[in-house]
Amino acid sequence: MTHELLNGLSSVESGQVLKLGTKLIVPSGVSLFRLGDPADRLFLTERGRIKLTLPMRVRGREEDVFVEERSPGQTVGWSALIPPYRFTLAATAALSEAEVIALPREALLQYFAANPAAGYKIALNLAIVIGHRLQLFQTMWLREMQRTVEVRSA
Fold first, then answer.
1. How far is Cα 51 from Cα 69, in angstroms, rounded to an integer?
2. Which of 37, 25, 44 is nearest to 85 (CA)?
3. Fewer beta carbons within 10 angstroms: which end of the chain, N or C?
4. How far, CA to CA in Å, does 112 sit from each of 13, 16, 64?
5. What's the total number of domains in the chain?
6. CA–CA separation, 126 vs 119, rounded Å?
């Protein structure tokens, strides 16, 4: 499987990174992490889908507002490599169980120090993943702003 975080790495480098991780099975509906949890590892989705949500209070009750789903080959939990190392969303296995590879931050940082060229490629790939999330939130914010302006104009 091709993982977006490992684009541009040789098969040897990809194998070295994957060996740092542990495979986890996440049953359907079970949380992988919650908003604000310490982010000590990031996850590569192998099988299934991971639903990302933003817990918020809506009309006096807690709701998980859907943000996006991540599918096989995609990265979840990049907060593990970005200070302050806290998850900024909640992640749950979607409709069926999911399988992920959990990569510990410390092991990744040691790998980057020992293999700076591979670490650089992973950092660039991580920037693309983060950029995608920023675009997604910008789109969501613009839609909400448009609704607000329309309501005020009516």
1. 4
2. 37
3. C
4. 11, 11, 35
5. 1
6. 10
Query: 66-98 pLDDT, tens per residue?
Result: 999 999 999 999 999 999 999 999 999 998 999
Q: Mean pLDDT by 10-residue block, N- to C-terminus, for the chain (154 residues)?
A: 95 98 97 97 98 91 92 97 96 96 98 98 96 85 83 80
**pLDDT at res. 49:** 97
Which of 45, 3, 55 has the alpha carbon at shortest distance from 23? 45
Give the CA-trace dihedral at 75, 78, 80, 83, to 10 degrees: 170
What's the CATH code of the domain at 144?
A: 2.60.120.10
By the 10 Å C-beta count (0-12 exposed, 13-18 middle, 19+ buried), 118 is classed as: buried
Q: Which domain holds residue 126?
A: 4-153
Classify residue 79 by burial, with Cβ atoms within 10 Å: 0-12, 13-18, 19+: buried
Query: Who's near 103: CB < 8 A, 6+ residues apart?
Result: 17, 20, 21, 41, 42, 43, 44, 80
**Which residue, among 138, 141, 80, 142, has the nearest Cα to 112 in the 3D structure?**
80
